[in-house]
Specification:
Order of helices and strands: EEEHEHHH
CATH architecture of the largest domain: 2-Layer Sandwich
Radius of gyration: 21 Å
Number of helices: 4
Strand order of the largest sheet: 3-2-1-4
Shape: elongated
CATH class of the largest domain: Alpha Beta
Length: 139
């Protein structure tokens, strides 16, 4: 899932640093020592915010049109830019919440798994992870 959210960048008048806020994601604020770092940190913060919501089973807020987002003059002069989020890659790297799934397998296969002391959930997770990595490598 790829998402795009507008962010507001506020330069520090005394350095090359920037503060970054993502207005559509309450409390999503970060910064960087320079503009490239601030952009990277903004992407990371927004991705983490959204992943947390998704892992908690919550809906994520829709992104506002960039034309509706303006810097807060009380904070300082700033500008608006877009952050492109690759949630599949981010979740593969940082996701941790498990989802319970029920599974039906043939009795003979269950007997084999028990005899081999295999954790069927772990075997399935490993197999799905391998398939995901192969597909990601092709894309």
């Amino acid at each position: 899932m790829e998402l795009v959210y507008p962010a507001v960048f506020y330069p520090d008048p005394d350095s090359s640093a920037y503060a970054v806020t993502v207005p559509d994601l309450p409390g999503c604020t970060t910064g960087g020592d320079n503009l490239p770092e601030a952009i990277a940190m903004g992407i990371d913060a927004a991705s983490g915010w959204i992943l947390g919501e998704l892992e908690d089973g919550k809906e994520i807020p829709p992104a506002s049109p960039i034309s509706k987002i303006h810097p807060d003059k009380e904070i300082g002069e700033g500008f608006v830019s877009l952050l492109a989020l690759d949630m599949d890659t981010y979740a593969a790297k940082y996701g941790s919440k498990s989802v319970r799934k029920n599974l039906t397998i043939p009795a003979w296969l269950n007997t084999f798994a028990e005899e081999e002391h295999l954790n069927v959930s772990k075997v399935l997770q490993d197999a799905l992870t391998d398939l995901y990595k192969k597909k990601a490598a092709i894309a």
